[in-house]
Amino acid sequence: MCPMQTVTERELIAAFVALAGSPDDRGADDPLGSLVRGVMSLLDVGAAGVLLADADGTLGVAASSDDVVAQVEAAALAGPDGPGADCYRTFTAVGTPDLVAALDRWPRFTALALGAGYTGAYAVPLRLPGEVIGAVTLHRVAPAPGTGTDTWPGDDALVLAQGLADVAAATVARQRALRHSGVLAQQLRSALDSRVVIEQAKGILAERGGFGVDEAFTQLRGYARRNRIRLADLADGIVDGTVDTRPVLGGPATVARGRR
After folding, report:
1. Homologous superfamily of 9-180 in CATH?
2. Where in the chain is CATH 3.30.450.40?
């Protein structure tokens, strides 16, 4: 098989559309899973695995074409060595068409990959402006008899693989941003809800204590601190009547039933 398979325009479009996902992230396919399927269908590879860095920069296996390559990639990270780890560190494509020649360079990865039946490996980075968030590693199985290995995967194949990886990285970044904005929105809603309840509690204390809302807030905050209660939780209890307001106002607790 030649290094670059014959690819139709329709196949290329389908691969890139799958990687881009939906603009609002609802119902979008996993971009890293789509990346694996894309390189498997468009390039001369026998397996593929994607490494993705977490917020601390630690790499982990995020997608793979099968369990065997996932185990190879995960075990190699313990070193860490292998083209994927080097690619992530150097921001550049890294690999070899002949893994036997890479035993000294990547002893752990090479032994595992050769044992799994892979003969070559090449990694391209998942790039964003100014940073790399991971790498996709292309694994080659034994080439057909009479087929050389020195040109694998080929310049055109690497260009296509990098294009797929770039779109996948952009989609991952967009999804992360959407999730982050959703968390921030929820935090803002919670903060606003808490503020409303606190204002209501201040009004209740001011009315029962016969003083202004500033003094009511001082009493509310002081009681919460002395008793190690979250201010919002205390305010919520005052508003729904489950907290006796007398101790909050400096008086003794009541044993009478009903709201105070």
Report:
1. GAF domain (3.30.450.40)
2. 9-180
Kindly indicate whether the domain formed by 186-248 is annotated with CATH number 2.40.33. Answer: no
Least confident of 155-169, 179-193, 229-243: 179-193
Strands, E assignment, the chain: 47-53, 59-64, 94-96, 118-128, 131-141
Q: What is the pLDDT of residues 204-258, one digit of tens each?
A: 998 888 888 888 889 898 999 999 998 889 988 999 889 888 888 886 655 444 4
Q: Residues 6 or more apart from 189 whose CB is under 8 A from it? A: none
The Cα–Cα gap between 249 and 208 comes to 8
pTM reported for the whole predicted model: 0.64
Residue 138 DSSP SS3: strand
Q: State whether the Cα torsion 47-93-11-49 is positive or negative.
A: positive
Q: Do residues 22 and 123 touch, judged by C-beta distance below 8 A?
A: no
User: Concatenated DSSP letters for 194-242?
Assistant: HHHHHHHHHHHHHHHHTS-HHHHHHHHHHHHHHTT--HHHHHHHHHHT-
* Spatial contact of 79 and 72, defined as CB atoms under 8 Å apart: no
Average pLDDT score over residue span 37-56 = 92
What is the residue type of 104? Answer: D
Give the tokens for residue 90.
């150097």
* Contact (Cβ atoms closer than 8 angstroms) between residue 186 and residue 205: no
Asked if 51 contacts 32 with a C-beta cutoff of 8 angstroms, the reply is no
